[in-house]
Specification:
The complex is a heterodimer.
Chain A lengths: L4 E3 L2 E4 L5 E6 L6 E7 L5 E8 L14 E5 L5 E5 L8 E8 L9 E2 L3 E5 L1
Parallel strand pairs in A: 2-10
Antiparallel strand pairs in A: 1-3, 3-7, 4-5, 4-8, 6-7, 8-9, 8-10
Chain B lengths: L3 E2 L4 E5 L4 E7 L6 E7 L6 E7 L4 E4 L2 E6 L4 E6 L8 E8 L10 E2 L3 E6 L1
Parallel strand pairs in B: 2-11
Antiparallel strand pairs in B: 1-3, 3-8, 4-5, 4-9, 6-7, 7-8, 9-10, 9-11
Classes of the chains: A mainly beta, B mainly beta.
């Protein structure tokens, strides 16, 4: 597709279960970001991939969160042993070069609800 | 510590009038600013940006003003239209908290255009 695609669009999971969220960036975009938006909050940076470089994981809130990007394209965000405070909309974005003057294009997000 | 602040959670403006959305930042390392627009159940979409070397950028009905000395920027929409009703996020690049080349976001302002 032409835009950033995320799946699933909605996910309800039980506390303590693991979840995987998927992001297909725009073809040819080398930079990929994960953000999350909790209720009433702004977008919180989680992790950033740029080409083949080691990812910037500085925004991951705990070691239960991890992300991979295979072949420089698709990315998977994994949350282990989910907690209720993990409930949020998880947004993926990609940009062509990741440079300071290029805007990021966002997917529609995955709404995660931990019950 | 919130580096990008949008102090108005919501704003109601009559159709045809000017909408002014404000954003303040604390990190003097930010050198590029962006506005994103978000409809419910969709990801944010890029609207307009401004580099710190400029004080104004205009694109159709949208104008962003930057006052570096005050660490303040604003988005003007004129004339406001019903389709402008959305949440508007202010974002900044160049500081910490957003990851390398990442974005630091404000909490958003919900703009409501009244008919």
């Amino acid at each position: 597709g032409a835009g950033v695609s995320q799946s699933p669009s909605n996910k309800v999971t039980e506390k303590g279960k693991d979840v995987e969220l998927r992001c297909d960036p725009i073809s040819g975009h080398t930079a990929l970001y994960w953000y999350r938006q909790s209720l009433g909050q702004g977008l919180e940076f989680l992790i950033y991939f740029q080409g083949n470089s080691a990812p910037d994981k500085s925004g991951l809130p705990s070691d239960r969160f991890s992300a991979e990007r295979t072949g420089g394209s698709v990315s998977t965000l994994t949350i282990q042993r989910t907690q209720q405070e993990d409930s949020a909309v998880y947004l993926c974005a990609s940009s062509q070069y990741g440079g300071l003057s290029t805007e990021a294009f966002f997917g529609q997000g995955t709404r995660l609800t931990v019950v | 510590d919130q580096q990008v602040k949008q102090n108005s959670p919501s704003l109601s403006v009559q159709e045809g009038r000017i909408s002014i959305l404000n954003c303040d930042y604390t990190n003097s390392m930010f050198d590029y600013f962006l506005w994103y627009k978000k409809y419910p159940a969709e990801g944010p979409t890029f609207l307009i940006s401004i580099s710190s070397i400029k004080d104004k950028n205009e694109d159709g009905r949208f104008t962003v003003f930057l006052n570096k000395s005050a660490k303040h920027l604003s988005l003007h929409i004129v004339p406001s239209q019903p389709g402008d009703s959305a949440v508007y996020f202010c974002a900044a690049k160049g500081g910490s908290g957003g990851g390398a080349d990442g974005l630091t976001f404000g909490k958003g302002t919900h703009l409501i255009i009244q008919p």
